[in-house]
């Protein structure tokens, strides 16, 4: 971690001034910064940090409802049979569009599926049609539940909370 002192470029120090006065003027113009990214080339790095890409919901991004992840639209499938495989899910979900990714988590102790899966589509339309059609359908004789993985809820207002005393 680096400690850096940023000095305002407009500071002019008179060599003829008394030492204490010039030090006081210098201290007034100094900004002390701690942490990463303030070493050499710190200003370039801080410009990069300010310009990170954001996931934009487009028009109506403040609206409640499903939200896009960084790469696509992800469905959360629950009540998946413990012996289901990615081929079973791929066969079922590929009817509604091109699947970008399927994620199945296994229980370390048993080696079986934990009971949920994530399926990612590139477009909202594909994911939404799969969600509507497959919610409540069967995989290996067990009814599954399909819903959005990321959902934006109503904004929370901290002032509206009532204090509990």
From TrEMBL:
Subcellular location(s) per record: Nucleus; Nucleus speckle; Cytoplasm
Gene3D superfamilies listed in its UniProt record: 3.30.70.330
InterPro entries the record matches: Nucleotide-bd_a/b_plait_sf, RBD_domain_sf, RNA-bd_8, RRM_dom, RRM_RBM8
Region of interest (Disordered), residue spans: 31-66
Sorted UniProt keywords: Cytoplasm, mRNA processing, mRNA splicing, mRNA transport, Nucleus, RNA-binding, Transport
Residues of the RRM domain: 73-151
A Pfam family hit: RRM_1
Function: Core component of the splicing-dependent multiprotein exon junction complex (EJC) deposited at splice junctions on mRNAs.
Subunit structure: Heterodimer with MAGOH. Part of the mRNA splicing-dependent exon junction complex (EJC) complex; the core complex contains CASC3, EIF4A3, MAGOH and RBM8A.
Family note: Belongs to the RBM8A family.
Entry protein name: RNA-binding protein 8A
């Amino acid at each position: 971690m680096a400690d850096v002192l940023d000095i305002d470029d407009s500071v002019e120090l008179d060599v003829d001034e008394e030492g204490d006065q010039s030090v006081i003027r210098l201290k007034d113009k100094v900004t002390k910064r701690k942490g990463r990214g303030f070493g050499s080339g710190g200003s370039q790095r801080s410009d990069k940090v300010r310009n990170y890409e954001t996931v934009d919901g487009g028009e109506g991004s403040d609206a409640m409802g499903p939200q896009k992840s960084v790469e696509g639209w992800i469905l959360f499938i629950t009540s998946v049979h413990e012996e289901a495989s990615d081929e079973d899910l791929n066969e079922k979900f590929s009817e509604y569009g091109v699947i970008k990714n399927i994620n199945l988590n296994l229980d370390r102790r048993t080696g079986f599926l934990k009971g949920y899966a994530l399926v990612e589509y590139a477009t909202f339309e594909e994911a939404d049609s799969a969600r509507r059609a497959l919610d409540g359908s069967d995989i290996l004789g067990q009814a599954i539940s399909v819903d959005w993985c990321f959902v934006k809820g109503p904004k929370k207002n901290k002032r509206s909370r009532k204090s509990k005393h």
